């Protein structure tokens, strides 16, 4: 996006003429829109606000806004006011001193705005019109009445800007529809709130939800589509409209929700050849090499290894797929702590920052933080994040910061309680008590009397230990217990295999001593070698299934396990698998040898 980005917000909610109903939304609209457009992480616009200005002042500020611009500039003009239509069909924007019978002299004609857009040197101009048009004021004899459709977009399509310069107009409503403020028009007496249209614009930009294609940028088309859906959901009687003549895509803002994109460097051809080998051991070695590359400090190399491991985890045999899945588990997002409590802070104060450390290899620490609430503030650091809260509003604050990495996402929960800056703090009553004690009360005997005032006690709020979350089920031990059971079964499988081998050796020695008249089948049955062999096979298979159940539970309910529990589960299941698979292989080979060889002994 270009560096030269300018926005002018015109908001009028107070009118001298009694026939123009007072609007509540414009002042709120201007404040909310100015904040999100000016935010360097979102809009990065230089913003001017004109509030309740006269028609003459509005014309001066509008013309000055479009003058002295360069080709690389992007301009955004936002109107939040009444839109009036003259008897001749011309659209006007109402100023604070507008007199409906004298629109040409006391209002700003849309033709004037079109003219300024046409002659500006700026490469791109966007016009937002959040206005109540004509018919919204037809409820009384002194009200302004509409005569036919307003057709806002047609008013701005008459004179297109100079060829080669892009322009776009988005209006909250068109024709005889009205721009609503909440559920009512302007005559609702409730407190101030943004209009449906501007609220959708602000919310889409602030949260990043308007980034529909998740490319990290909010285009004009993205924003219009998002606003259209939001407005229609809240009020089916209001239909935003758009007209544009643009060359290429116009990006209005950065998105905080853009997914992480890393251009991967593919693994070397020999390594890719090893991944496709028919030999199991060769593929296992290739997975181990990918695991090393996954921890590389160069993110493109690590991302290339990650993509290959995902293919292996989804397509190879179970043994190798599990190895690949274990390797991918290393890059899961692991913030510490994942719950922050700022306690009680005063309104308007600057609370301390709390640090969040990201663990794991570089690829696991590479993520985007997306605050879900507007009062949350997040700054990246060398080891993770710094979090603080905006204390502008009183009340109990509870919100989440979503961390999105290349492969998964997680949440950091944040809490705070903002109290009035003028209210007494915990130590203020004590100071008052000291003061009262030093001042004698008025009395006739002139004696000093000590008055002790008990300080108001503020109950202490429970603190959450660092590295823990408020959910009680974070102590769930189901997956580690299953992993422990899998390890015990694997040890039992090894034990029964050893016992079977010992008895088989004893049976073969008896067969050798018996000479020509010996029968190996009888000797094996007599020594009882088959029973532990069968138990070994069953126990080995059960071990693998229990280990799989432990890993599945860990993956399906990962938010209920601590990092330590997850690490223990991975370690125990890996050891169990390493013992069970060789035991199964040897047991199967021994069984095949018995079936094939016993008739010939």
Please work out how many helical segments DSSP would assign.
17
Mean pLDDT across all residues, rounded?
78
Oligomer: single chain
> Which consecutive residue ranges, at least 5 long each, have pLDDT under 50?
134-148, 183-192, 424-474
Distance between the termini: 84 Å
Q: Beta-strand percentage?
A: 15-25%
Question: Radius of gyration from the CA trace?
Answer: 37 Å
Tell me about this structure:
By secondary structure, the chain is of the alpha/beta class. Helices cover 41% and strands 18% of the residues. It is built from 17 helices and 18 strands. The protein has helices spanning 25-38, 55-66, 103-106, 110-119, 152-157, 196-207, 220-234, 269-275, 280-294, 299-315, 318-328, 362-365, 428-438, 478-514, 520-527, 530-556, 563-597; strands spanning 5-11, 46-51, 74-85, 91-94, 107-109, 124-133, 166-171, 217-219, 241-245, 251-254, 335-336, 339-346, 354-358, 368-371, 376-380, 384-389, 395-404, 409-419. The strands form 4 sheets. Strands 1, 2, 3, 4, 5, 6, 7 and 9 form an 8-stranded mixed beta sheet that branches. Helix 14 (478-514) packs antiparallel against helix 16 and helix 14 (478-514) runs parallel beside helix 17 (563-597).
């Amino acid at each position: 996006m270009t560096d030269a980005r300018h926005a002018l917000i015109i908001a009028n909610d107070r009118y001298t003429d009694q026939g123009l109903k007072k609007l509540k939304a414009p002042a709120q609209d201007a404040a909310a829109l100015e904040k999100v457009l000016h935010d360097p992480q979102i809009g990065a616009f230089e913003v001017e606000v004109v509030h309740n200005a006269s028609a003459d002042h509005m014309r001066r500020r509008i013309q000055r806004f479009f003058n002295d611009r360069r080709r690389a500039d992007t301009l955004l003009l936002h109107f939040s006011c009444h839109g009036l239509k003259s008897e001749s069909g011309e659209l006007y924007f109402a100023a604070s001193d507008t007199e409906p019978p004298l629109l040409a002299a006391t209002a700003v004609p849309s033709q004037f705005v079109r003219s300024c857009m046409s002659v500006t040197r700026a490469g791109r101009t966007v016009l937002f019109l959040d206005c109540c048009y004509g018919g919204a004021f037809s409820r009384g004899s002194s009200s302004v009445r509409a005569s036919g459709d307003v057709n806002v977009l047609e008013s701005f399509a008459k004179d297109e800007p100079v060829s080669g310069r892009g322009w776009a107009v988005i209006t909250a409503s068109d024709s005889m529809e009205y721009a609503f403020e909440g559920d009512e028009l302007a005559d609702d007496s409730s407190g101030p709130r943004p209009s449906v249209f501007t609220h959708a614009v602000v919310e889409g930009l602030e949260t990043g939800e308007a980034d529909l294609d998740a490319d990290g940028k909010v285009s004009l088309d993205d924003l219009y589509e998002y606003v259209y859906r939001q407005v229609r959901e809240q009020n089916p009687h209001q239909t935003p409209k758009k007209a544009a003549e643009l060359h290429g895509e116009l990006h209005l803002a950065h998105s905080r929700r853009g997914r992480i994109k890393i251009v991967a460097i593919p693994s070397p051809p020999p390594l890719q050849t090893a991944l496709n080998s028919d030999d199991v051991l060769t593929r296992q070695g290739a997975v181990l090499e990918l695991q090393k590359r996954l921890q590389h400090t160069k993110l493109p190399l690590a991302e290339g290894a990650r993509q290959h491991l995902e293919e292996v985890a989804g397509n190879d045999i179970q043994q190798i797929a599990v190895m690949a899945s274990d390797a991918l588990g290393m890059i899961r997002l692991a913030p510490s702590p994942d719950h922050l409590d700022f306690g009680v802070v005063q309104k308007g104060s600057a609370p301390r920052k709390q640090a969040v450390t990201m663990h794991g290899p570089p690829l696991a620490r590479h993520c985007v933080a997306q605050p879900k609430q507007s009062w949350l503030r997040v700054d990246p650091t060398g080891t993770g994040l710094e979090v603080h809260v905006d204390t502008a509003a009183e009340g109990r604050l509870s919100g989440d910061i979503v961390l999105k990495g290349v492969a998964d996402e997680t949440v950091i929960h944040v809490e705070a309680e903002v109290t009035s800056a003028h209210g007494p703090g915990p130590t203020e009553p004590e100071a008052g008590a000291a003061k009262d004690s030093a001042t004698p009360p008025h009395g006739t005997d002139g004696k000093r009397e000590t008055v002790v005032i008990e300080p108001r006690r503020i109950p202490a709020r429970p603190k959450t230990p660092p590295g823990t979350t408020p959910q009680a089920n974070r102590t769930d031990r189901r997956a580690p217990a299953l992993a422990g059971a899998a390890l015990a079964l694997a040890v039992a499988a090894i034990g029964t295999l050893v016992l079977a081998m010992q008895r088989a050796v004893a049976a073969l020695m008896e067969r050798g001593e018996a000479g020509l008249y010996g029968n190996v089948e009888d000797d094996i049955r007599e020594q009882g070698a088959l029973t532990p062999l069968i138990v070994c096979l069953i126990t080995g298979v059960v071990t693998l299934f229990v280990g799989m159940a432990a890993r599945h539970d860990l993956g399906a309910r990962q938010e209920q396990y601590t990092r330590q529990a997850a690490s223990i589960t991975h370690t125990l299941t890996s050891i169990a698998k390493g013992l069970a698979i060789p035991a199964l292989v040897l047991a199967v080979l021994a069984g095949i040898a018995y079936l094939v060889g016993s008739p010939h002994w």
